[in-house]
Amino acid sequence: MTELYIDADACPVRDEAYKVALRIGVHVHIVSNGARGLRVPEHPLLHQVIVTEGADVADDWIADRITARDVCITQDIPLAARCLEKGAAALNSKGRPWTHDNIGGALAGRAVAEHLRSTGQTTGGPAAMTQADRSRFLSTLDTLLLAAQRGPAPRMRIPPGGF
Q1: 30 near 49, Cβ under 8 Å?
Q2: What is residue 162's predicted lDDT score, i.e. its pLDDT?
Q3: What is the pLDDT of residues 100-142, one digit of tens each?
Q4: Distance CA 149, CA 126 (A)
Q5: What is the C-alpha to C-alpha distance for residues 163 and 66, in angstroms, rounded to an integer?
Q6: Measured between alpha carbons, how far is 128 from 91 in angstroms, rounded to an integer?
Q7: How far out from the chain centre does Cα 120 lie?
Q8: pLDDT for the residue 110
Q9: Which terminus of the chain has fewer Cβ atoms in its 10 Å neighbourhood, N or C?
Q10: Cβ neighbour number for residue 76 with a 10 Å cutoff
Q11: CA distance 50 to 35
Q12: Which letter does DSSP use for residue 79 in this model?
C-alpha cells in the first residue's frame, strides 16, 4: 500500500498534500521535530509523528520506513536522495520531482552554498511560492501517488542484439 511521508517542519504545502492524499485514499505521515504549531486535521489516514529534537531525526524516521511504493515531500536534498536510493518518489514543495538525474547536481549545489555560508558569504534563499508552484505541486503529487499505487514500473528486458 502506498503511503505519503511529509517532512513537515518547513513544508508550505501540507494542506494541499492532505487534500490530494485523502482524495486518493493513502495514509499520510506528517513528521516533525516538535509540534511547533502544526495543526493536523483529525482523519484516520493522517498520522502526526513528532520525533525527538536533533539533527536529521525526522529525516532518519522517514528514510527508515519509506519503501519503493511511497512518496516523500521534502525540501531536504539529502533526505530526497535517501528516498530515491530506496526506490521511492520524492517531490519538493514547488512540485518539482527529485530524480536520479537531478539529485546529484542539487547535492553539489547544496555543498557549495554551505561552503560559501561557512566563509561568511550571504547566499539567497528560495524564491517565494507562487500560485503556479502550488498548481504544479498538486498536479505532480497526484501523478506520483497514482503511479506509486500501480507499483514500480516494470523493467524492460532488452533481448541480446537489441530490437
Answers
A1: yes
A2: 42
A3: 887 766 666 655 666 566 777 776 667 889 999 999 999 999 9
A4: 31
A5: 36
A6: 17
A7: 30
A8: 58
A9: C
A10: 21
A11: 7
A12: H
At residue 76, what is the residue type? D
DSSP string, 23-40: HHT-EEEEEESS-TT---
Neighbouring CB atoms inside 10 A of 47's CB total 13
DSSP 134: H
CA 66, 145, 103, 14 torsion: positive or negative?
negative
- 146 vs 104, higher pLDDT: 146
| Alpha-carbon gap, residue 132 to 151, rounded angstroms | 29
Model confidence pLDDT, tens digit, residues 6-36: 999 889 999 999 999 999 999 999 999 875 6
Kindly list the structural domains of the chain, giving each domain's residue range(s) and its CATH number in brackets, ordered by start: 3-150 (3.40.50)
- How far is Cα 66 from Cα 5, in angstroms, rounded to an integer? 8
Does pTM top 0.90 for this prediction?
no
Q: Tell me, what amino acid is at 16?
A: E
